[in-house]
Request: fold
Amino acid sequence: MIRSEDNFQYLCSVDEIPPSRSKVFSIENHGNKLELAVFNLAGNFYAISNVCAHQRGPLSEGSLDGDIVTCPWHGWKYSVKTGKSHHEGGDSVSSFPVKILDGRIYVSPVPERVGKRTSKPHEAYQKLDSAVRQHLENMNSSPLLTDTSVRVLGISTTNMNDDKTPRTSTSETALQFALDYAKKRYSAETVMLKLRQLNFRHCEGYYSKNSKACIFPCSISEMDQEDQMIQVYYRVIVWADVVIVSTPIRWGNASSLYYQMVQRMNCVQNQIVTHDNYLIRDKVGAFIITGGQDNVQHVAGELLSFWSQMGFVFGKFPFVGWSRGWYAEDTENNVSASTASEKFKHDIINTVNGAVEMSRLVKANRYDRRVLESRPAMQDSVQSHSEAS
Ligand code: FES
Reply:
């Protein structure tokens, strides 16, 4: 018997949830909305919170194996009988009493067990998270800057095996030249990250499941303590004023390591789309693109497109390219030919000057803050757009 004082609420008939399937319900408890996932395990029904303790993924859409449901977003596992986790750390979601009467399912909104988030991300992940928050707070609140110091980050995306067959890279040599020039001419602090020396996984496409499953800092960095994309995120988002990316041309495109890195930066750009959160503030991008053969303009177009979408701005001559043309199969001469080219050095200097001067302008004027603060609210801009059309 269901007594009214038990506050059980009718959900649906048992036929509406087939075996090994689940259904989601919204119920209320004293004005609070609860989202429940109700599972049918061989004719027995169990209710747990539909909201994953990790990042609020929908457990009703997870896969079921025995009594274990796996969250569809990043794979945390819970028993549908108890709401307790099967992953390290002991996180859990609330579980709720279920009663069946005359083929009808009822649930109490008062949990049997209250869920808890107990685990914390590893230290490097937490440090990155708080450094980025602090940085954004400073960028939102600090006054105009008169400080003209500049930090230039170089990201070398060429690939080679430094242990087995070390060699000199054309693109990396040019990047080193650019950093040395910035140091000498502008007393810039410089750092070069060599992607081939960092250990990081490919993007695993959580965005494709749901845009909110793509979080920042990236969930892969959270799951994998060895993931060194954390260094790239920190240097690009917090540390640098100017980021210069160098890449060789590989079959008409940037290097595969470059793509591996930028796919992991989807989470930076996605913050704009899903959270209206702009992580890149007052930063300037520039590129060095080299190839034994050609396709500089195509690669420059791709790079400019991605980095502009992240929120970078660009100075005069934002990229410099160098190639020897289609018939230059004597690739062993690429480095010597590039370092002997006064024109190439001249163009690299132009690109660095353009980037550093632009960095001073945007920092001194707090360019990004002015742009972001003068935006109309999303609703207003949509309304004025439809009125105009
Ligand atoms: S595992 Fe559920 S939201 Fe990440």
